[in-house]
């Protein structure tokens, strides 16, 4: 399991440093956990946008690696087919949503990181995800508290972690590399988290750049030692949900073990849930409304679901197999017409890889 102790120490720092989090920061699980915790309180519009955790992983549950996609289980235990005319017992009252068409989904069924991490005794199983549109891999380095490594893939050279980051030359397998030393307070002097951080940037092949961060921070030599044990081959993780439909013109920017996020047009990819639709597997059975606001019972295929609306957005809770529920959190900027939302939700299936979100 990803290092919960590290997450706890970094959560507050990330929250305060929302806009400046550097690319590849090994803080992925922290921001995700914070996003879920706040989102679960229906604070969709004010959720902190820390980039870095560079998705939403629920409570940062490991994303089980799959050699091939496992058979998919439909929400509610039956094939989830779009419904032509969803019905509801009453009319929900969200803000006026834009007209949106549903199209065939292009959501990936799996996420692949193009390199494999060191195969060292005591190191944890890799965790693969899509974060802010980039493939990311995390690995726990020994028992809890020993550290977590995060690698992020780029196709052009990534920018400096902060405006004041200090670069130093290094080599990884005889190839040139750069180690940046920086602090979270570099671009925000009021940020109390001032511990020194290090990020390694190198180009393992002609088309790929990687960043490596280890938290707690290690020496430059430790970063290079880890990087030199990274090998070609790759790791794959199955997506937690399968989608038959998606809103036209929207993009998917985060796929984690416990959630998938959709950005409406005009919303740039980032690691948060802000201004998006987040799809999660919830621990509740879905038989009661979730969150504050006006609750409306709606029909999703053969199941009764709950649509709750407030000034901050909506939540849609649909009972599924195993005593859990499919949870859609819809920010105010990401509202869909009710009939479109229900058809979209009806097209979602839960895969065996899905992990329950925690928050």
UniProtKB/TrEMBL annotation:
* Residues passing through the membrane, by range: 44-65
Q: Where is this region: Disordered?
A: 70-93, 153-172
Q: Does the keyword Transmembrane helix apply?
A: yes
Keywords, ordered alphabetically: Membrane, Transmembrane, Transmembrane helix
Protein name listed in UniProt: Uncharacterized protein
Query: To which species is this protein native?
Result: Dactylosporangium darangshiense
């Amino acid at each position: 399991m990803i290092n919960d102790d590290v997450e706890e120490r970094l959560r507050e720092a990330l929250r305060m440093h929302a806009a400046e989090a550097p690319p590849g920061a090994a803080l992925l699980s922290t921001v995700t956990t914070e996003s879920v915790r706040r989102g679960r309180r229906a604070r969709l519009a004010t959720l902190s946008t820390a980039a870095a955790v560079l998705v939403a992983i629920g409570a940062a549950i490991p994303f089980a690696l799959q050699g091939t996609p496992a058979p998919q289980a439909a929400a509610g235990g039956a094939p989830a087919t779009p419904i032509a005319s969803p019905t509801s017992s009453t009319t929900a009252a969200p803000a006026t949503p834009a007209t949106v068409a549903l199209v065939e989904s292009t959501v990936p069924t799996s996420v692949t990181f193009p390199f494999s991490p060191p195969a060292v005794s005591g190191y944890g199983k890799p965790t693969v995800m899509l974060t802010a549109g980039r493939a990311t891999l995390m690995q726990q380095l020994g028992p809890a508290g020993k550290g977590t490594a995060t690698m992020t893939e780029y196709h052009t050279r990534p920018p400096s972690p902060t405006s004041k980051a200090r670069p130093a030359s290094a080599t990884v397998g005889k190839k040139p590399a750069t180690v940046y030393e920086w602090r979270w307070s570099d671009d925000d002097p009021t940020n109390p988290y001032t511990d020194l951080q290090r990020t390694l940037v190198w180009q393992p092949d002609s088309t790929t750049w990687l960043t490596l961060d280890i938290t707690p921070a290690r020496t430059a030599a430790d970063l290079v030692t880890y990087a030199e044990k990274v090998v070609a081959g790759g790791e794959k993780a199955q997506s937690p949900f399968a989608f038959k439909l998606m809103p036209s013109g929207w993009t998917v920017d985060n796929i984690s073990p416990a959630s998938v996020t959709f950005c409406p047009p005009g919303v740039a990819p980032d690691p948060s849930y802000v201004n998006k639709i987040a799809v999660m597997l919830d621990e509740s059975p879905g038989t009661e409304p979730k969150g504050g606001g006006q609750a409306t019972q709606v029909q999703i295929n053969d199941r009764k679901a709950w649509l709750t609306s407030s000034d901050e957005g909506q939540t849609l809770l649909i009972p599924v197999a195993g005593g859990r529920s499919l949870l859609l959190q819809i920010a105010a900027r990401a509202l869909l017409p009710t009939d479109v939302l229900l058809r979209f939700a009806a097209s979602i299936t839960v895969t065996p890889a899905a992990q329950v979100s925690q928050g």
